[in-house]
Amino acid sequence: MQALRTSHRATAPHGVTLIEMVLVFVLVGIMASIAVPYVNAPGFRADAEARNTRTILEMAQRLAITHQYNVVVSFDTINMQIRVLEDTNNNNIADPGERVHYHAFEYGMKFATPPGNAGLNGATASTSITGTSLLSLSGMPSVVFLRSGSASSDVQIYLTSPRSTYTADYRGITVTQSTGRTTYSRFLKSVWTIANI
């Protein structure tokens, strides 16, 4: 009979060595350092807040049409928030029993005059909220959405991120008086460009 022979082969250890892990971390770090400068987080936040502001305005217009009473949108430029008043008796005052909603800005966003007072559509913007017939209600610039869907005034709203020295972070929202239609624009390379959303 033949004797059983056993062979002892050296097997490679399973797992990852410390050198391989360090190499992976170094490569990930290099890739991140290349990609991070191209990510404009404050710009994304400015876009989000501009879209949110536009949505608030559109919802106020729809509310006025469906419920057939005025809806007053006021811009609190001190506390950085938007107030929406469901004005059931159409007197432009928050009476007892009327619903009032507040929408605060997030991420440190704020109302701000655009660089060089360059307003939308070639206008001059001396303040963060401008318009032809803006009302001042409770000390805040305000626009009223009427039961027909139109607005009491043309309005331009300007906002920016906390790092307002970057012109790419400025956003503008317009309301057209006759239709109540809103648009949203970005300030890029000293020119307002309508955003496609």
Topology:
Blueprint: H1 18-35, H2 41-67, E1 70-76, E2 81-87, E3 100-104, E4 110-111, E5 129-130, E6 135-137, E7 140-145, E8 155-160, E9 171-175, E10 182-188, E11 191-194
Antiparallel strand pairs: 1-2, 1-7, 2-3, 4-8, 5-8, 6-7, 8-9, 9-10, 10-11
Account of the protein in words:
The chain is an alpha+beta fold and 197 residues long. It has a single domain (40-194), classed as minor pseudopilin epsh domain (minor pseudopilin epsh fold), CATH 3.55.40.10. Helices cover 23% and strands 27% of the residues. Strands 4, 5, 8, 9, 10 and 11 form a 6-stranded antiparallel sheet that branches.
Shape type: elongated
Given as residue ranges, the uncertain stretches (5+ residues, pLDDT < 50) are: none
CATH level 3 topology: minor pseudopilin epsh fold
Instruction: Specify the CATH homologous superfamily.
Output: minor pseudopilin epsh domain
N-to-C order of helices and strands: HHEEEEEEEEEEE
Please report the first level of CATH classification, the CATH class: Alpha Beta
Q: Distance N terminus to C terminus?
A: 84 Å
> In what range is the share of β-strand residues?
25-35%
Oligomeric composition of the shown chains: single chain
Q: Classify the helix fraction into a percent range.
A: 10-25%
Radius of gyration: 28 Å
Give me the CATH architecture, please: 3-Layer(bab) Sandwich
Biggest beta sheet summary: 6 strands, antiparallel
Q: Would you tell me the structural class of the helices and strands?
A: alpha+beta
When the domains are counted, the total is: 1
